[in-house]
Automatic annotation (TrEMBL):
All residue ranges annotated as the YchJ-like middle NTF2-like domain in the record: 1-89
Protein's name in the database: SEC-C motif-containing protein
Lineage of origin: Bacteria, Pseudomonadati, Bacteroidota, Flavobacteriia, Flavobacteriales
InterPro entries the UniProt entry points to: NTF2-like_dom_sf, YchJ-like_M
Protein source organism: Flavobacterium aciduliphilum
């Protein structure tokens, strides 16, 4: 989760797609990821709760108008071939 947050903060859209599970990868658009990543100023990640396959977190950022925002999500992951992959999340 922390590496994906860092990827959002640095605009590493290729990494975000590569670490998204193949079953849901088609649902993600590289241009949209890059736009959301670069439009916002990422401040910090707060991990609230974890289980073996989920991470509940809050990501703090400033939007394009410099208004403080919080993205809260419970993300689901799958461990496959020695690597964790993001599947989906509920907001």
């Amino acid at each position: 989760m922390r590496s994906r947050y860092s990827a959002f903060a640095t605009g590493a859209a290729d990494y975000l797609l590569a670490t998204t599970h193949r079953s849901t990868r088609k649902q993600h658009d590289k241009a949209a990821i890059l736009d959301w990543s670069q439009t916002n100023q990422w401040i910090k990640l707060e991990v609230l709760h974890t289980t073996e396959t989920t991470v509940t977190f809050q990501a703090y950022y400033l939007d394009a108008h410099l208004k403080a925002q919080i993205h809260r999500e419970k993300s689901r992951f799958i461990f496959e071939n020695g690597q964790w992959f993001y599947v989906d999340g509920t907001y």
